[in-house]
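We were asked to recover a plausible sequence for a given structure. The inputs and outputs are reproduced exactly as logged, with field labels preserved.

PROBLEM: sequence recovery
POSITIONS: 438
GIVEN STRUCTURE:
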């Protein structure tokens, strides 16, 4: 068997494997919910809705994997919202590495600039929902402690601390006494809430961006008692932290990738599916083939040695190229200084992109099927799944690939599941949750 076929096999899921993995995923969900040891933390969000009749102006802060965004949102009642201001800054590298004051100081500074630009007066008191896209042990809607960093962050003195306190202190230090955070929200939860504001069938929220995660609505009675204290609503959204699922078969490329991340041993699923890592898995496969002289043999074998030198969007460009001589693939290679390539090698490169992204989409389909298996095993109802993130939005045919995986697992029942792009929902959702709290 050719080397490339052997590699392909390691990324492949048969229909039986997809179904078996779905069952394992569901078991881990149940363990996590019951408070037992599980890679899926199943974190309580202490919210399940937003109030469609609320009026007023609210802010949203959104710390994702790459950007910090500040939004001002007006709630107009009857389920209508208007974004009146939005300001985004990319997160400087030092904020991800140094101590908490650098990160929280940067965020508070950005809020200060946004407030100035938006013309908000000192006498206007504004509440904010804070979308914080990392695993946080939530004890209430306004209290949550960082469990661990993901997505390359290593900022010191934040783990174990209450994120709302850190943010409100930083805001005060910048003289923003009129602005305070009253709700802490994971980006999946914000996305689900924002979509459910428009579509009542929304039962799951997913992020497929720099990182990956999902949440869904659970009956409160199914949640371990210590994780629902002081909460009296019938339903609660659970932040699964599915990026940490660890039961899928991992191959040598997954292992090589993991070893060189700041969080080895963690976030195995995230490292198979999210935008931060897809390009790197691809590079590691190419590096192997080049070293063996199996591909691009007329080039220096060191060409793919630089870590993270290929982005997920470049892999997507390679996969989407349908031109006869694969000029799109050549163009990506040219940006890496590789000018001499054979068509056969370019074809192989396209094939590799295809099986890496197929596996990613299959993992997402497994996760979705497991959640559906938990909330509606016979799939009696229609389900809308709100999804945001660059991989879902921009990676070539990614939504179709997820749908294919769902069909392989759920057969006809997959028709009841609608995937929708819920763009920038996470911040808006946080503002809606903030409004529901006051
Ligand atoms: C974090 C999640 C987050 C996801 C998507 C993961 O790395 O652990 O909390 O929802 O990224 O941003």
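RECOVERED SEQUENCE:
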């Amino acid at each position: 068997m050719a080397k490339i076929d052997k590699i392909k096999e390691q990324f492949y899921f048969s229909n039986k494997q997809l179904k078996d993995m779905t069952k394992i995923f569901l078991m881990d969900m149940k363990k996590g919910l019951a408070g037992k040891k599980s890679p899926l933390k199943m974190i309580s969000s202490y919210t399940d809705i937003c109030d469609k009749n609320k009026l007023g102006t609210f802010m949203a802060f959104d710390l994702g994997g790459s950007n910090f965004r500040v939004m001002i949102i007006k709630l107009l009642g009857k389920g209508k919202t208007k974004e009146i201001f939005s300001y985004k800054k990319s997160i400087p590298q030092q904020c991800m590495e140094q101590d908490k004051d650098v990160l929280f100081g940067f965020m508070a500074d950005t809020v200060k600039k946004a407030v100035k630009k938006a013309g908000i007066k000192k006498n206007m008191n504004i509440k904010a929902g804070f979308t914080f896209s990392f695993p946080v042990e939530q004890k209430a809607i306004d209290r949550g402690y960082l469990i661990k960093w993901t997505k390359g962050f290593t900022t010191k003195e934040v783990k174990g601390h209450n994120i709302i306190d850190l943010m409100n202190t930083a805001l005060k230090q910048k003289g923003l006494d009129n602005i305070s955070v009253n709700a802490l929200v994971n980006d999946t939860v914000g996305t689900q809430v924002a979509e459910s504001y428009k579509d009542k069938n929304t039962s799951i929220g997913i992020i497929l961006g720099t990182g990956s995660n999902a949440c869904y609505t659970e009956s409160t009675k199914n949640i371990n008692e210590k994780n629902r204290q002081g909460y009296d609503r019938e339903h609660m959204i659970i932040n699964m932290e599915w990026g940490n699922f660890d039961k899928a078969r991992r191959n040598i490329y997954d292992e090589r990738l993991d070893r060189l991340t700041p969080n080895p041993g963690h976030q195995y699923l995230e490292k198979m599916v999210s935008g931060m890592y897809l390009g790197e898995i691809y590079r590691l496969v190419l590096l192997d083939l080049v070293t063996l002289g199996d591909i691009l043999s007329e080039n220096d074998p060191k060409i793919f040695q630089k870590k993270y030198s290929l982005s997920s969007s470049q892999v997507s460009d390679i996969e989407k190229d349908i031109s006869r001589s694969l000029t799109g693939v050549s163009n990506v290679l040219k940006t890496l200084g590789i000018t001499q390539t054979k068509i056969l090698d370019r074809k192989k490169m396209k094939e590799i992109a295809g099986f890496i992204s197929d596996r990613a989409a299959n993992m997402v389909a497994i996760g979705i099927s497991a959640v559906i298996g938990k909330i509606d095993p016979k799939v009696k109802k229609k389900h809308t799944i709100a999804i945001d993130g660059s991989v879902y939005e921009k990676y070539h045919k990614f939504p179709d690939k997820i749908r294919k995986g769902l069909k392989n697992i759920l057969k006809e029942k997959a028709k009841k599941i609608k995937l929708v792009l819920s763009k920038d929902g996470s911040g808006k959702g946080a503002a809606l949750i903030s409004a529901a709290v006051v």
